[in-house]
Design goal:
The protein is an all-alpha fold and 84 residues long. The protein has one domain (3-83). 82% of the residues lie in helices and 0% in strands. The chain contains 4 helices and no strands. The protein has helices spanning 3-10, 12-28, 34-54, 61-83. The longest helix is centred in the C-terminal third of the chain and has 23 residues, at 61-83.
């Protein structure tokens, strides 16, 4: 699979939202329970979109979807590591 074409199709911004959200959940889960880490990261994503709207750009639901997918993947990975 050509990852460069995939990133171009999805958009670098959406990939960044996914990756940062996934990373933040896993990083926070080192010091907080996963059930606390995930909503915090979602809140950060929502706050970022709200600030975007307030500062003259726009609210992008696709950014929130990318954040949510990154969060979900991290939670699943976290839970899978607890099963091993």
């Amino acid at each position: 699979m050509n990852y460069q074409k995939l990133v171009q199709k999805i958009g670098v911004d959406k990939v960044a939202h996914f990756a940062l959200s996934a990373f933040l959940v896993l990083a926070l889960s080192l010091v907080l329970p996963i059930w606390v880490s995930a909503p915090i990261v979602l809140g950060v994503g929502l706050l970022k979109e709200w600030l975007d709207k307030k500062t003259g750009t726009y609210w992008d639901w696709n950014d929130i979807k990318a954040d949510a997918l990154g969060i979900a993947v991290s939670v699943v990975l976290f839970l899978l590591t607890k099963l091993i």
